[in-house]
Amino acid sequence: MPVHVRSFSKINLGLRIGPTRPDGFHGLCTLYQTLALHDVVTVSATRAAETKISLESNHPAVPASAKNTAWRMVLSALEHMKVTAEVKIHIQKNLPIQGGMGAGSANAVAALLGLERELGEALSGPERLTLAGEIGSDVPLFLLGGTSMGLSRGEVLVPYPDLPPTPCVMAVPSVGVSTPVAFREWDRLHALTEATGFDRLEELSRVYASAFTPAGTGSSGASGVFADKISEDLAGNLLPALVRTGIENDFQEVVFQQHPPLRDILHALQGTEETPVENRAVTAMLSGSGSSLFGLYRTEADAMAAQQRVLGQGTRAIVTSTLPRSLYWGTMFEEVEERAEKAVRA
Ligand SMILES: C[C@](O)(CO)[C@H](O)COP(=O)(O)OP(=O)(O)OC[C@H]1O[C@@H](n2ccc(N)nc2=O)[C@H](O)[C@@H]1O
Ligand SMILES: Nc1ncnc2c1ncn2[C@@H]1O[C@H](COP(=O)(O)OP(=O)(O)OP(=O)(O)O)[C@@H](O)[C@H]1O
C-alpha cells in the first residue's frame, strides 16, 4: 500500500554567512522554522532481487532521475539497510523550485520516512541525520521539524523551543535563485570589503540563544509551576524577542541586487504607510537564498491583507502558518482513510 507523506517547507528566521571552508561550503548560522505549506511524496516499495527506483512528478522541472534528492536518499538508505527493493516515488510539487523553502531537501526526508514505513525497517536517528547531511545542508532540519538552529554548513542542528503557530504569507516570485550562485555572489561582494569571519556566526548563535532566555529571571525558581510559567510566557513572546534582536538574512544583500523587484515585494509584505502599525508584519525577509520571501503576522486577517498587497503587485502569495514540531510529526502522514474521504468528497 503506497505511503503518502507531507513534505513540509521551511523559512529562515535570519541567516549569516561565514567564510568559505576548505571543503568549499560556507559556515553559516541560521534559525530554521518549518511551515505547514507542503508537497506530497508518495512511496511504494517491495523487496526485490535487485534495487530499481523510478520517480514521477506533476511538475516537469522536477528531475525524474538519480539527480533528484528523493531518489538519492532512497538509494543511500537502501544501501545502509542492506535491502534491495523496487521503489516507486511520486512527488506532487506544490512548492516553488529554487524558492529557498527547502522543498527539494524536504522531499528527500519524506521519501526516506515513506520508504522506512513501506519496508518496516528503520535507520537509527544518528544514521538518518548522517545520510540527510550527505544529500544536502538543508536536509537534516526536516528530521527535526519545528524551530531549530543550523550551524556548520547548516546541517548541524540545535532544536529550539517551538514558536506558537503564527500566520505567515509566502510571496513566490516567478524568478528562481540558484543557491550556489548566490553564495558565489556573496563571496565576490565581500572578498575585497570586510572580513566575514566565524565570529559573526558565533555572535548570531548567542543572539538566538538569548531570545529564548526569559528576561528578569535572575533568581531561578526550582518549582515546576515557575518553570511552566516561564515556558508559557516564552512561547507567547518568542517571536517579538527574536525580532528585537534585529535578525536579518545576509542573502538579501546579494539577491536584491540581482533581482531589484524583490525589494518591492518585501515592502508589500511588511505593510505600506497606509497600513496601521499594529497590522504590519512582525517580521518579513527573504527565505534562505530566495527567491521566496515571507512575512509573519499577529492575526490571520493581517496575513490575508498582506497577501492582497503582494497579489496586487502581480506576485503569487500564499497564506500559511508556522508548524511547531508536534504538528510537524503529527500531521506528516496522510492516512489512507483521509485520502479515501477526499476521494468520496471529490
Ligand atoms: C541557503 C540555504 O537554503 C539556507 O537554509 C541552505 O544553506 C542551502 O542548503 P542546500 O540547498 O541543502 O545546499 P547544498 O545542496 O548542501 O549545497 C548546494 C551548494 O550551495 C553552496 N553552499 C551550500 C551550503 C553552505 N553552507 N555553503 C555553501 O557554499 C555550495 O556551493 C553547494 O554546492
Ligand atoms: N525533489 C526535488 N524537487 C525539486 N527540485 C529538485 C529535487 N531534487 C533535485 N532538484 C534540483 O534542485 C534544484 C533546487 O531545488 P529546490 O527546489 O530544493 O531549491 P530551493 O528551494 O532553493 O532549496 P533550498 O531552500 O534548500 O536552497 C532544482 O533546480 C532541481 O533541479
TrEMBL record:
The active site is at 10, 138. Residues 68-146 form the GHMP kinase N-terminal domain. Residues 247-310 form the GHMP kinase C-terminal domain. It catalyses: 4-CDP-2-C-methyl-D-erythritol + ATP = 4-CDP-2-C-methyl-D-erythritol 2-phosphate + ADP + H(+). The keyword tRNA-binding does not apply. It holds the Pfam family GHMP_kinases_N. Gene3D superfamilies: 3.30.230.10, GHMP kinase, C-terminal domain. HAMAP family: IspE. This is 4-diphosphocytidyl-2-C-methyl-D-erythritol kinase. The lineage of its organism: Bacteria, Pseudomonadati, Acidobacteriota, Terriglobia, Terriglobales.
